[in-house]
Q: What sequence folds into this?
């Protein structure tokens, strides 16, 4: 299983010399299965570049898993080039407990006067699905789900294939109880033993905003340690967080791990980063 990042920024895309190392595009993760399956997690602005690459490669079978319907996770969808290719077969999956249907949520991103092309006018074949708590398969990849502890609800994912696992928990606040959210212990169990965990690390202790749906990076690190994951990536970088500030967060995590004698591999997720499991 190959995991490639096309965007790890939160809230709004950013640009400039202070954001080069980790990138400015919002959430989009590409997963390639061993049998060629293509899964995309979220349609933030990073999906624009990914879409251009998929068209160049001639990829037609595409599965998009949406975590939730906040703008930074949907902004790129209308600019996803495979939508305008007749041969594309796109499956979009959304949370079963959301406040609206997956189709209606997506259609709102492609509606005048905000966008000139309506969802009904696109060329691709597009199918909408509701994720179920018991999980489902996309080819050889088993997709498990868990409700996020976030404002307006959402879903986290665990992808498993051939004994390897990748857990994706962005926009998940570990120390606050939102409607439909779960306990810390349940996220720990969901992440247990994963080869790779990307978890929301929006805040530092000094700028934490309780109830806004995001975690302090040290709380996310604690979850990674207690879950026994092998690699941990800080994700959903604050729109104001500069490269050197993210570097400092990673250095602090590594200091804490050294003090505990932990062998956990920690890093901050950057645009174009690849991890093979």
A:
């Amino acid at each position: 299983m190959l995991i490639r990042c096309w965007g790890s920024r939160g809230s709004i895309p950013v640009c400039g010399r202070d954001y080069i190392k980790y990138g400015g595009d919002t959430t989009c993760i590409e997963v390639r299965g061993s049998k060629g399956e293509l899964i995309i997690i979220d349609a933030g602005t990073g999906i624009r570049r990914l879409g251009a690459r998929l068209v160049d490669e001639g990829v037609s079978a595409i599965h998009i898993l949406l975590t939730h319907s906040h703008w930074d996770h949907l902004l790129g969808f209308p600019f996803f080039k495979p939508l305008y290719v007749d041969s594309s077969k796109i499956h979009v999956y959304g949370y079963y407990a959301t406040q609206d249907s997956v189709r209606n949520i997506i259609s709102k991103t492609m509606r005048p006067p905000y966008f000139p092309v309506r969802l009904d006018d696109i060329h691709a074949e597009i199918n909408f699905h509701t994720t179920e708590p018991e999980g489902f398969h996309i080819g050889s990849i088993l997709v498990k789900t868990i409700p996020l502890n976030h404002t307006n609800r959402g879903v986290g994912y665990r992808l498993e294939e051939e004994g390897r696992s990748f857990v994706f928990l962005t926009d998940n606040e570990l120390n606050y109880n939102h409607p439909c959210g779960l306990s810390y212990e349940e996220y720990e169990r969901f992440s247990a033993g994963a080869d790779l965990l990307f978890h929301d690390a929006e805040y530092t202790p000094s700028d934490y905003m309780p109830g806004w749906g995001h975690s302090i990076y040290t709380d996310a690190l604690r979850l990674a340690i207690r879950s026994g994951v092998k690699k941990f990536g800080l994700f959903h970088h604050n729109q104001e967080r500069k490269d050197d500030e993210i570097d400092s967060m990673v250095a602090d995590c590594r200091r804490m791990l050294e003090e505990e004698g932990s062998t956990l591999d920690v890093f901050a997720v950057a645009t174009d980063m690849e991890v093979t499991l």
In short: The mean pLDDT is 95. The first strand starts at residue 2 and ends at 7. The radius of gyration is 18 Å.
